[in-house]
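notes to self, project folder thing:

trying the whole complex as one job this time. last attempt i did each chain seperately and stitching them together was a nightmare. two parts in total, labels are on each line so i dont mix them up again. if this works i'll redo the older ones the same way
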Amino acid sequence: LSTSPLNSCLALLALWCSIGLAGLLRPRSLVLVGRTLFPLGALCGAALAVVAAMSLATAPETAVLPIGLPDLPVHLRRDALTSFFLFLLGATSAGISIFAAGYFRRGEGALPGLLCLQYHVFLASMGFVLLADDAYAFMVAWETMALSSYFLVTTQHSIAEIRQAGFLYLLIAHVGAISILLAFGVMQGGSWQFTFDAMRGAHLAPHWATAAFLLALFGFGAKAGIVPLHVWLPEAHPAAPSPVSALMSGVMLKTAVYGMLRVSFDLLGHPQWWWGLLPLGFGLLSAFYGVVFAAVQTDMKRLLAYSSIENIGIIFTGLGLAIVFHGVGMSSLEALALIALLYHSLNHAFIKSLLFLGTGAVLHSTGERNLGRLGGLIHRMPWVAWLTLIGALAMAGLPPLNGFVSEWLLLQAFLFAHEVPRSFVNMLLPMGAALVAFAAALSCYVMVKFFGVIFLGQPREAALARAHDAGILKRIGLVWLALGCVALGLLPTFVIGALRIVSAQLSGAALANAAAPWWLLVPLSGRQASYSAVIFFLAVAAVVLFTMLAVRLVYHRRVRRSVPWDCGFGQLDPRMQDSAEGFGQPIRHIFEGFFGVERQLPSPFDRKPYYRVVVADRIWRTFYEPLSPLIQRGANAFAWLQQGRIAAYLLYSFITLVTLLALVL
Amino acid sequence: MTLAEIVTQALEVIASLAAAPLFLGWITQCRAWLQNRRAPSIWLPYRGIRKLFYKDAVIANNASPLFRLAPYIVFGTMVVAAAIIPSMGTRLPLTKAADAIALVGLLATARVFMSLAAMDVGTAFGTLGARREMMVGFLAEPALLMIIFVASLISATTALPTITEHLATQSLALYPSLAFTAIAFTMVLLAENARIPIDNPATHLELTMIHEAMLLEYSARHLALMEWASALKLFNYACIGFALFIPWGVSTEAESPATLLASIPLLAAKLAAAGAVLALIETVSAKLRVFRAPEFLAIAFLLAVLGLLVHLLLGA
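result (full assembly):
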C-alpha cells in the first residue's frame, strides 16, 4: 500500500472505526474509553487534518475498494473540496474528542464503550461521505452518519423528550435522504451508472438538471437545517450530549454544504444562474429566522441550535451567490462567494464546537441548561468563561476574530455584485446584504445575552457556588478550538490561499489576484477593499496597553473593593438581574408577530403569582400541522394494501416480480 | 508608508483625542444657549475627566477582570476608529488594515464590551442598560452599514479614504441618494451616541436611560476612560458623517503639508456647525419612550434602503 493522501485518509478512517470497536472490549471501563480511546481518536483527527491540509494542492486521485455487493465496488475520490472538508472534520473533531475524553462519565445513559463505538463510527462515516465517489457508497455513508448520530442523540434514552427529539431528527434525516437518493436517480441520466464520474459525464436536459438540483437542495437542506426544515435542530441539539451537539452542529451540518457544492458545481457541472436564487432566498430566510429565534431562547443549547440555523443560512446565502455569479459568468466574484462560504463553514465549525463544548462544561459542572438558573460563572469557571468569550465574540462577528472575516468577504461579494446582467437581481442583492448585516448585528445581541447571562453577574442559584472549572482534558479541547478561532481570524490570507485552490478546482473560478503581502487581505483589488486582521489587532492592543501603562504611570493604581453601588439601593438580589426572558424581551416585543407567544400573567391579588411565557416556533402551526393530516390521509388511502393475510402479501411479491421481469426482459 | 502619512496619522489621532471632549462641551454649550440657560464652561468635560483620573477607583466586590479590562478596550477601539476615519487627510497608513465594514465591526466591539461590563456586577440597572444598548445597537448597526453601502456603491469601494476622495473630487456632483442617507445617518448618530430622542445624556432617571445605566458601577479612572471614549465616539461619528457627506477640504494629496494644515480649521468649522445642528435637533425634539426607539431606527434603516434604491434605479 503506497502512502498516497487518499490511502492515508482511508487508514485514519479505518483507525477511527477500530478505536470505536475497541470500546466494546471493556464497555464499562472509563479508563480505557475515556482516558485512552477518545484521546487516540483526537490524535487520529489531528493526523487527518494534517494529511488533508498537505494534500489540498495535489491532483485528484481515485480508488476502488472491492467491498460491498458483488459488481458494486466502492468508488472513492479525493480532490481539493474533499480535502478541505476532511481538514474541517479532522481539525474540529480533534478538539471535540479530547474534550469528550473528559466529558463522558458514568450515568450518561448509554455505556461508555457503546458511546465510543457510535461516536467513532459517526466520525468515520462523515469521512466516507466526503470521500465517496458513487451514489451507493455516498448513501451508505450518509445513512450510517444519520443512524450513528441518532443513537448518540438518544444517549439518555430513558427520557421521553429525548426519544421524541431523536425520532424527529431521524424522520427529517430520512425524508432528506430519500430526496438525495432521487436526486442521484435523476443525475445518472439514463446511463444507470451510479458512479459520480458517470454523472459528471451525463448531459442532462435543463429541466432534468433543475429537478436534480431541487431534489438535492431539499435533501441537503433538510440535513443542514434550512427553514422550514430546521425543526429538528432545536430539539436534537439540547437532547444530545454536548460533544455530540458540537460534532453535529460543527461538522455534520457541513457535510450537507459539501453535498450541495458537490452536486451543483461538480456533478451537474454548470448550474443555471437562477438556481442560485433558491439557496440565496432560503439562506437569507434561515439567517433571519434563526437569529431572531436565538435571541428569545432560554435554554443555552437551544439558543446555539438556532444560531446554527442562522449560520447555515449565511453559508447557503453564499452558495446562492456563487451559483448566480457562475451562471452569469462573473468568475472572480464567484470565487469570492465560494471562498466566503467555505471560510464561513470552517469558522462555524470551530466557533460552534467551542460554544457547545463551553455549554457542556457548564452543564456538567452545574447540571443546569436553563439560562435563568445560571450566572456569575466567570468567577467559578474562569477557563471555560474566557475561552467561551473568544467563541462568543467570534460568533458575534467582531474583528479581529474569524467570524468577521467570512462575513466581511460575503458582504464584499454582495456589494460588488451590481453588474449582474439581470436588473431585478441587482435590486435584490443589496437587500440581501441588508439582511446579512441585520443577522450579524442581531447575533451580537444573542452572544451578549448568551455570555452575559451564563458567566457574568451574580449567580442566580445558591447551588452555583459549588460549580468547578473544567478538568485538564476539557481545557485542552477548548483551548484547541479557541486557538483555531484566533488563528483563522488573524491569518486570513493563508486560509484564502488554500481556499483558492478549492474554488479553482471546483468550478474553475479564480480570484483576480491582486498582489498583496501576507498580512493584508485584498479580495478583489486594493482600491476596492482591504483588511488586515494582524495590523488591526496590533493597533487596538497597542493602544490598550499604552493606555494602561500611561494611566498607571501618570496617575496611581489605587483600587478599593466595596459592595456594588447600585445607586445606593443596598439590597441587591440576584433576582433583580435580567433573566434570559428579560434580556430577550425587546426582541419579543419588536418581532411580536413573528413568534407564537403564549403568556400567562399573574393578577395583583394572586397569593402565589405565576408567570409563564412560551415562545413557540410558528412553523409548526403554519407548515407541519397542516401537513400531518394530509400525510395521514395519504397513508389511510394505502392502508387497504395491508390485508393481514399471507396470501395477499405473497400475491404482492408475485406481482412485483412479474412486473420487474417484464421490465427487464 | 511615508513620513508624511505617519505624520498625518499621528496628527489625526492626537487631534481626535484632544478635541473630542471639546466637541462635547461645545454641544452642551449650544444646547444651554438654545434653552435660555447659562452655559457651563466649554472646558467642563476636560475638568471632569481630569478629576476622575485623580480619584481612587472603587470596584464592586464581585466584579470580574472583564469589568476592569472593558474601559481600556472600549477606549482603545475608539482611538483606533479615530485613526481610520479620514477626518483631515485621506493618506492614512492604518486605513489599509480596516475598511468601512471593519470600522462598523470596531464600533460593535466597543458596544459589546461595554454591555458585557455592564452585566458583570449583576445590578438591575446594569443589565437594563446593556439590554437597551444592544437593542439600539442591533437596529442601528445594519442602518449604518446600509448608509456605508450607498457611499460604497457610488464610489465602488468600501475603503473609507477612497470613498472620501471619490466624493470630494467630484466637486459639484450632488447625489439624491446621499441626501436620504444623510438623514438616516443623523438619526443613527443620535441613537448610537445616546442623544435625545433615544437617550438623554443629562438625566439619571432610571426609566429612560441607556448609556448612563451601563456606567453606574464605574468610578475614577475607569469612568474617565469610558467618558472620554464616549466623547470620542461622538467625535468619530461626526467625522464619519463629514467623510461621507461633506468631504470637501480633506487633504487628499500625499506630500502636501499645506492642504493638511488647511484641513484643520475646516474640520473645526465643520465640527462647530455640526455641534450647533445637533444641539438644535436635541432642543426641538422630545425624548422617545424606549419602545419607540425601534420605530425611529427602522425609519433610519428604511431611509438608507431608499437611498440605495434611488442609487440603483436612477444611478444617482
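what i see at first glance: Residues 331-366 of chain A form the longest helix (36 residues).
need to look closer tmrw
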